[in-house]
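Researcher: I'd like a candidate sequence for this fold, 240 residues long. If you have to choose between options at a position, lean toward the conservative one.
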């Protein structure tokens, strides 16, 4: 099975329901499509079953949706994946689900509220949704530390992927996105509340151009070291 480049999970919500539709979600899909022309799936009605069947098919998983953090029971923290139903297996991806999954995506972006929030547990750290994805095998997670503003996050995400497309590390791409956001922010939208809460954790390397690029990089480095070692040994033998 060929692993595709990226998927943006951006469900639509009823304007009359508890959870409002996220206007910036469509823009986030467009941003991914522009940065990953070799394969992006934009999903408008993602549910739990869709995610379970396809979670291993993508190297980048981007969630542009609502989330809620349960401080009393962090295993109940969840991402909403369809129609806005807060309860019901088909519409909710709970933290408790993540700890029994394998999600080997190269990077997971949690563009939702409070995805890095949760109680601190000794020996574990912050028990958040981001922690769940890391536990499931995702080496790099972008998360939010507090409620996210849809408009602000849209701009940050676009700048973030632009930086990644330029070959920057994840932290450098996010840092440049924040500087760009501040350069264009007016009035109260420049307050750190709107831009400082999105951070990256885990592997900070740039996104690889191919699925095994980083592996081949280490192999080439090892070959180079062996060659240099052989040259050094030959010269030492010729001088002795």
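Model: Candidate sequence:
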């Amino acid at each position: 099975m060929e692993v595709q480049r990226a998927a943006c999970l951006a469900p639509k919500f009823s304007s009359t329901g508890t959870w409002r539709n996220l206007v910036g979600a469509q823009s986030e899909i467009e941003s991914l499509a522009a940065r990953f022309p070799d394969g992006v799936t934009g999903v408008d009605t993602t549910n739990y079953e869709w995610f379970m069947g396809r979670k291993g098919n993508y190297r980048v998983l981007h969630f542009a949706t609502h989330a809620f953090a349960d401080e009393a029971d962090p295993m109940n923290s969840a991402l909403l994946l369809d129609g806005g139903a807060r309860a019901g297996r088909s519409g909710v991806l709970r933290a408790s689900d993540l700890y029994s999954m394998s999600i080997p995506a190269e990077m997971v972006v949690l563009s939702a509220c409070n995805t890095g929030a949760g109680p601190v547990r000794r020996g574990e750290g912050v028990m958040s949704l981001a922690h769940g994805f890391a536990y499931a095998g995702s080496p790099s997670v972008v998360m939010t530390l507090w409620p996210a503003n849809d408009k602000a996050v849209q701009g940050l995400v676009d700048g973030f992927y632009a930086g990644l497309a330029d070959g920057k590390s994840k932290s450098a791409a996010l840092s440049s996105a924040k500087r760009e956001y501040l350069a264009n922010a007016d009035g109260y939208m420049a307050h750190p509340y709107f831009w400082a809460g999105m951070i990256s954790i885990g592997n900070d390397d740039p996104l690889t151009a191919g699925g095994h690029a980083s592996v081949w990089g280490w192999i080439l480095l090892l070959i180079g070291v062996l060659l240099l070692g052989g040259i050094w040994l030959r010269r030492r033998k010729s001088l002795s």
